[in-house]
Structures are given as C-alpha cells and as structure tokens.
Amino acid sequence: MIDALNHLPRPRAGSDQLAERFTDLAPPLTARQAAVESARCLYCYDAPCVNACPSEIDIPSFIHRISDENLQGAAERILSANILGGSCARVCPTEILCQQACVRNNAQECAPVLIGQLQRYALDNADFSEHPFKRSPATGKRIAVVGAGPAGLSCAHRLAMHGHDVVVFEASDKAGGLNEYGIARYKLVDDYAQREVEFLLGIGGIEVRHGQRLGANLSLGELRDQFDAVFLGLGLNAVRQLGLADEEAPGLLAATAYIRELRQVDDLAQLPLADRCLVIGAGNTAIDMAVQMSRLGARDVNLVYRRGHADMGATGHEQDIAKANQVRLHTWARPDAVLLDDNGRVRGMRFMRTELADGRLRDTGETYELAADAIFKAIGQRFDDASLTDPVAAQLARDGERIRVDDNMRTSLAGVYAGGDCTALGQDLTVQAVQHGKLAAEAIHAQLMLNVEAA
Amino acid sequence: MADLSIEFAGIKAPNPFWLASAPPTDKAYNVVRAFEAGWGGVVWKTLGEDPAAVNVSSRYSAHYGPNRQVQGINNIELITDRSLEINLREITQVKKDWPDRALIVSLMVPCVEESWKFILPLVEATGADGIELNFGCPHGMPERGMGAAVGQVPEYVEMVTRWCKMHCSLPVIVKLTPNITDIRQSARAAHRGGADAVSLINTINSITSVDLDRMVAHPIVGDQSTHGGYCGSAVKPIALNMVAEIARDPETRGLPICGIGGISNWRDAAEFIALGSGAVQVCTAAMLHGFRIVEDMKDGLARWMDQHGHRNLEAFRGQAVGHTTDWKYLDINYKSVAQIDQDACIGCGRCHIACEDTSHQAIASTLKADGTHAYSVIEDECVGCNLCQITCPVENCIEMVAQDTGKPYLNWTQDPRNPYREAS
C-alpha cells in the first residue's frame, strides 16, 4: 500500500458499493443506440473527424459498417489504423478530437456523432476468437521495443504484422503502460487493458520481457548491438516537483502513484481515504485524481490551479465531470507552503493568490490556507533522465528533456526510433502514442527491407 | 381557416382525406374510429362474391430506411375475408350514423356481367355514396381473373365500367393499377366506359427484402413467399407522375382524379391536389401512425392554404398541371448553377465527392490551414443537375440559381441541333 498515506483511514463504504462507483463512467451503447447513432453519421468525404484523429482511423467507413450491420468489418477498419482502438475509444478526449471536428457539431445542431462510443461498440461486439491480422512471411529481422505502453505495443504489433520478430522490454509487471497504470478506473474498467494487450499479442512474434528498465538493467548500446532496430517508447516516468519544503512529508504524493495503486487494487475498500483532499494541477490526471477520491467517499475535494478555467489542461468535458462529482475547482492560487501537524504529517497547504499582469502570472501577496489530510501533485510528468545514461543513449539528441525525432520517428541515432510521450512530437495522448508506434514500425520496416533489397 | 370541404364526382365530404380501401377500412369498428378521428371519407375494403376470400398468416413486409424508418410496405392480403352480408349490414349502419362523410364501397367480382349485376344493387341499397372498382390488386386476385388482371387490359376496364354505370346509379370511381406501361391507356378506357372518376395508384408489384439466412423473401409464409403490393411514401413519386399524366392527357381532361400513393402529410396531399387530384386517399400513413394523423393533415393543409390565400381546394387544384410538360418542350436555354452558402456549409464534402465521382467535376475542394476543406462551385463546369443540392445534408445550403443567359425560350422541337426539328 502507499506508505505516505498509511496513517489515513479507509473508505466508509463497503467493497461492493465502492466497486459500483467505479464502473463505466460512460456505459456502452446498446445495439439499438448504436443503430440510431451510426445512422446519424453523414459519411463525409475528406471527413474532418478523420483529420482530427491522430491515428487516422477511417471513421465514416467504420460507422457506415456499423450501420450496415457489419460489425466485424467495422472493427477491423478501426484496428487496421489503431490496434489499441478499444482503449482509445474509452480514454480519448473525443470532445477535442474527432467529435469536436464532427460536422454535426456545428452551431446549428451542436450534436456530434458519438464516435468514441460507436468505436467501442464495434470493438466490444466483434468476434476476435481469431486474431484479425495475419503476419507476413518471416523476415528474420529482430527489433527491440523498450516500453510496453501504447506506443511500444502499437509499434510491436505493426512490426510483427510485417513479419519481424519483436522483443518488448518492460519495467513493470504488466504491459499496457498508462492504460494499465494511469487511466482513471471508471474510464477503463475491469481488466480491459490486459485483455487488449492479450488480444494485441495474439498476432504472434512478440515476446514481452518484464522487469527490464532502460538505464538500470538494460542499455541502449547493447540493444543496438543485438537487434536490427530499436524503438523507444519510454513515456514520462518522473513527477514534477512543487519545489516546496517538506514535499516528502507523509500525506503528500504524486497523483500518478495513487492512481497506479487504485487501478491495481482488487478491493477499493483497502485504499487510504483522504477525507479532506487537495489536488494540485488542472490536467486530466488532476481531474481523475480528484474525482476518484470523491467517489471513494472523500467529503471535501479541492482542486487548486494557479491560472484560470480557460487555461486548464483538462477539457471542458473533464471539468464537468469534476463538478458533477462535487470537486471544487479553485483557480488563481499556487502552492506556497506545505503545512504539517505535530507528527510531521500533512495537515493542509498555504496558497498564494495569483493574477495576470501584462500577460504574466504574478503573486498578489495574499495567502490563504486549506486543510487537507492528503495532497496530490498532478502538475505534470517529466522525462526520466536516468533511462538515457549509458554512453550510447547519452548521444541521443533531445528537444528540451524529450527525445528528438523526425516525422518518421527516427532519433538522431541510426536504427533507433522513438515515439509516444517521451518525444516532443504531437500531443501527450494515448491515441498519439499509438500513431507514433505505427509510424515508427512502418519506417523501421521500410528501412530494413530497403537494406534487404539492396543486399 | 380555409374550407377543406369537397364535392368529388358528385360525392360530398367535409375534407379531402379519405382512407383507401385496405385493412384500415375492413369493418365498422375501424371505420367508425376513423370518422371519429376526423377522416372525410373512407373507401370500404373491397367486397367480393361469397364465399369470402381467405387470407394467409404473415401479410406485410417493409422496406426500411435508416433507423427502421419505414419507406414502404408490401402486403399480400386479399380483399375482405368477411361475408358480403356482414359487410353490407355494417356499411348501411355506418352510413346512417355518419351521413356527412363520404362512404365509398370498393368492389371486385369476376369479369362477367352477371356478377356485377348481382352485387351492384346490394351495394346501392346500403346508402353508400359511390363505388370504387378494384382493378388494381396485384396479388392473389389476378390469379383468379380479377383485380390487376382486369386493370391491365384496357378493354376489360372499359367493359366493366360500362356494366357498372348501366346497373347502378352511384358514381363509379375506377381504381387503376400502376403495374402497366402507360397509365393513360387505363384511364382513357375508364373514361370511355363512363367512369365518373379514376383513383390511383393501387399498389406496385414488389418484393421488399430477402431473409439471407433462410433464403426466402419477406413476408414469409411457412418457408415460402410471394410478391405483394407496394405502398407508402416510397411510391409517392410514381403516383404523382401517373396522376399528372392523366391530368394533362387531352383525352381524359376534366376526369376527376382521386390521388393515392404514399401520402403521409398535408404537403403530400397538397402536391397531389396541385397536380389535379380532387380528393386523396391515405392508407400506409394511417397504418403506421393511427387515424389521429388526419388531424395534422387537415391542420397543416388549412394553414398552408390560409397563408397562400386559397379559400378552398379548387383555388389551387391543378395549378401545377400546366407546368408539367413533355421533355421536348423544356427550355434548352434555361441554365441554373449551384451556389454554396459558405456560412451554412458544415464541410461534409458530400457535394464534392458526388460531383467529382459521378457528375461534372464542378465542385472544388480546397484544403484549409486547419486541415479541413472548403467547397466551391466551378460555375463553368456546373450543368445545374441538382445532385450536390440533393446530397447536401443542410437545408438551403446549396441553392440552384437561375442564370440570366440572355437567350430566349427555345425547346428541342425548335433547336437547330435537333436533326428532326419542326420546321419554323
């Protein structure tokens, strides 16, 4: 259990009651709902929704196939562009992607086709007793993929499909990355992340080795020597710090650490409950943290952000979820000091009010305090530099802290590719990572086969 | 409010909305409910000779649009399966109870004079306002030499009509089958036989769908099927054309027409009336929604008439007939061009791909900075076909704008490009 919160009580509600509060936030469509919704799609040409989808799913086509009662065809259309289409259907912020772009989301109608829900419907109801994709004849090439998150898994699958053999090196006990460890429990319920990984691995030719951490028991130099190409899908594994004294005090920890625990625990009643809870940050992780604590039974959940609502990383939809779960959103205040009780545990936080002056954020000088049993930091993830310490890895060109890649996901080192959150390209989204992995796999495949033909 | 009352072929009714001869008018119970709901008249479901017809189980099937929206219904039901005596008794009572409503009796008996001579006086004795000759039923009855088997032979139509006029004093409405090549031949035959009016269309031969698991068409009877008669909004365009054909045929000009075929709302009815119908008959819409829809039909029609200053139906009846002509008289010099309202456009690209793939490559797609596309008409390439307007999901977004070509009216009979043009 989470040591920093061991002194806290457990939820008042029973296990079953808690489990019910963490079922699907958006329940799946029924067959009838899917029929009605799919018929609303206008089957656009050069469809804006496809343009808005980082993984370029042919949305009009798959929805048309649902409408035509061809679920299998719909599912395969989705998966051919995005092998993690099932989790993307659940976790994508569709309100700022495909559904925002939907032509039915115009000012007259304001009612986009529920693309994410339809995607889920197709994938939930198609039959995958046999893996839908076949591998090309073996090429004899071996590729190392570091990180079994969405980017790495997507890359591995596409490479396997092209006939290559893939070894995936993963630090954690389970594959799936943020789908397994980082998404709010009510967005990706049950063991969906694992079932999806199993499905993906069903193509064959992919070996996943756990307990393998780059920079610890794995080095890029060795991987480069042993494999024909390397893909880095490392993610962002370090937590941003508040930069305050007593940041390590019991009662203060990263939201991601708590969410990771929350997603893994079988019995939610075993989790520590912060009855008075503070979440610092305003991204989707902050919202996930606040809402989940509220659902565990916390009576007083406050989310504090140094800027205004419009600046929040969380979408309007996410903010609405927070409000619907009795989360109070405080804006224009930044953490100023961690307040401890006599036992050295967190008892609250002092905030400095902020304001904009000439476009710059500054302190107003006015402070206030909020009592809290626990404080969760959700001010963003950082790249974990420890992973790139071996001599070869140290040569990788970086954009800021992240790995620099070109449009073909090539790093500055020949034969080394990267994708997902550890690169600076695109948005930090699951669907973006899947696309990166796919593009990298295509680039690796093209490069390796070019060499074959030349030989 | 506008006056919706009519006098059609000598038959008076408080409004032009009649229920067609079909299951909804099979017996007194239904007909009374229809009159209570406000229908102006009914055509009682077709009577025949005893013994009454026998129907099978499983009788309808449908052609669906998106969301199970019924576009058309196909039926294999025969004429009344109740005895002549019961029907006549009920008709007598209903007419007595509802004297202001039109009550027409649909008839179908074998194509021999004796049969008609027998049944006509019995019908007349009920006090009914008129008879309608069912020459259109396309399933079951033709195999017995009745229904469409008569309607498809103009000589028979004329002959039977003449018998009816001879043995009955009631107005005779001849119901025409659309399962022919030229509806005017049937109408002319009815006219020659002395018909007081024609009503059309009856149902169209149809199979709506096939069960691909059982490999049998719908509706399924045991493990078999048969073709039926198609009706509902899907047949409206076919019916409108046939009505117009008769309305503008010099040989039948002035012959009252009762329009039938997919009339689902007041607008449909107004269109049939504009093409010359003096009354309309409805069936499928009532079968889908119940008799109450007549209230909306009457209300909508009356309000539209009020808005346009039409005090009664005669004020606009047939007004679209004169504008319906043969292709050869259309103005070759008329030109319209599509115009897209960019503010209304939602960027679906349907107009573009329709024109690009299947028409005249007259709608350009331009990639915008945000990755979406803008669509604009290439006027020089546009032939004014209307396809883009048809594919556009936004009402009034694409307008077909008439162009001032400066050229005078010129039709094909006058066009110099026509090698067979009429001498000027």
Characterize the structure shown:
With 455 residues, chain A is an alpha/beta fold. Chain A has helices at 15-21, 31-40, 48-52, 59-67, 71-81, 85-91, 98-101, 115-125, 150-161, 178-181, 192-201, 220-226, 255-264, 284-296, 316-324, 430-454; strands spanning 142-146, 165-170, 206-210, 229-232, 238-239, 252-254, 276-280, 300-304, 327-330, 333-340, 346-357, 360-371, 374-377, 381-382, 398-399, 402-403, 416-418. Chain A folds into three domains: 31-125, Alpha-helical ferredoxin (Fumarate Reductase Iron-sulfur Protein, Chain B, domain 2, Orthogonal Bundle); 142-237 and 383-454, FAD/NAD(P)-binding domain (3-Layer(bba) Sandwich), CATH 3.50.50.60; 239-381, FAD/NAD(P)-binding domain (3-Layer(bba) Sandwich), CATH 3.50.50.60. Chain A contains 16 helices and 17 strands. In chain A, a hairpin with a 2-residue loop joins strand 11 (346-357) and strand 12 (360-371). Chain B contains twelve helices and 20 strands. Chain B has helices spanning 28-37, 84-97, 113-124, 148-151, 154-167, 183-192, 236-247, 266-274, 284-289, 293-307, 350-358, 387-391; strands at 6-8, 11-13, 17-19, 41-47, 60-64, 70-75, 102-107, 130-134, 172-175, 197-200, 204-206, 210-211, 216-217, 228-231, 257-260, 277-282, 336-340, 363-367, 373-377, 398-402. Chain B has an eight-stranded parallel β-barrel, surrounded by seven helices. In chain B, strands 5-6-14-11 form a four-stranded antiparallel β-sheet, with no helix packed on it. In chain B, strands 1-2 form a two-stranded antiparallel sheet. In chain B, helix 3 (113-124) packs across helix 5 (154-167), helix 5 runs parallel beside helix 6 and helix 8 (266-274) packs across helix 10. Chain B starts with 5 loop residues before the first strand and ends in a 22-residue tail after the last strand.
